[in-house]
Amino acid sequence: MDELENMQDGGFERFLEGLPLKFRVMDISLGVDTQMEFLEMLGKVDESFSHDFFKKNEARLFSPDTPFAELKQLLVHLSMVDSVEAMRSLERYVEQCPGEVKEFAQMAAYQSKLFLEASILGENQVLVASGMGGEGERMRFFVALMSRNRAPLSGAQQQLVQKEVEYQLKQSGATVESVTFEGGYVRIFALIPMRTNVKRLLERCIAECNELGSFMDQNMIISTVKPLSVDELDRIVNERSADER
């Protein structure tokens, strides 16, 4: 859970400080390893590719004989072709490509669309990817709040927490997609603007709830990588408790 620990220790805030003014969060959920591999390969490309390059290489894209490593490199290069035809070809490829390259192809198709839009509008945007996707300048977060001693919340306490979460996040321009209660955990999925201090926002939720009974723990778990089951949450909380002893 290194990504989670990095987020809890301020890694996400440091990441936000490096964001440019124009960026877009991918609206599809893809494996983090695939995203990192694609973006690392993309970062090594210092030029765009011509429509002629696309025409010469389109057949290689759809050929079952193209070696896997070459195929991934080709997908990266085709995502940097300033051509609607190239973008449509990548979209078609996503629909019929082998499963082992599916996510990589989805990244290429998304990058192609972003590159073409930037060319048309005359403004560059940076692609921000996460394990659970997002929308525009908002990223999808999984958050787990917890009760003191992880005791199950009463019906009245659940209503209070849900109303407070929905109110506070709405005030910050976020959209709460779901709030569920399992054991002593409050599991939240929400689209939250990237430049929001999520930890501080949630601390405000907890403080407001505790004005009426002090039943919520101050700790929380935040992830943009993947949702966590109750068993995974238990393991993380127990590991943290052991480290603090």
What's the layout of helices and strands?
Blueprint lengths: L1 H7 L2 H7 L5 E3 L6 H12 L7 H12 L5 H11 L5 H13 L5 H20 L4 E3 L5 E2 L2 E10 L7 H17 L3 E8 L2 E9 L4 H13 L5 E8 L6 H15 L1
Parallel strand pairs: 1-2
Antiparallel strand pairs: 3-4, 4-6, 4-7, 5-6
Helix pairs in contact: 4-5, 5-7, 6-7, 8-9
Quick overview of this protein structure:
The protein is of the alpha+beta class. The protein contains ten helices and seven strands.
Question: Overview of this structure, please?
Answer:
With 245 residues, the protein is an alpha+beta fold. The protein is built from ten helices and seven strands. The protein has helices at residues 2-8, 11-17, 32-43, 51-62, 68-78, 84-96, 102-121, 155-171, 198-210, 230-244, and strands at 23-25, 126-128, 134-135, 138-147, 175-182, 185-193, 216-223. The strands form two sheets. Strands 3, 4, 5, 6 and 7 form a five-stranded antiparallel sheet that branches. A hairpin with a 2-residue loop joins β5 and β6. It is elongated.
Q: Could you name the ranges where pLDDT drops below 50 across 5 or more consecutive residues?
A: 1-7
In helices, the fraction of residues equals 40-55%
Sheet of most strands: 5 strands, antiparallel
Instruction: Tell me the span between the first and last alpha carbons.
Output: 20 Å
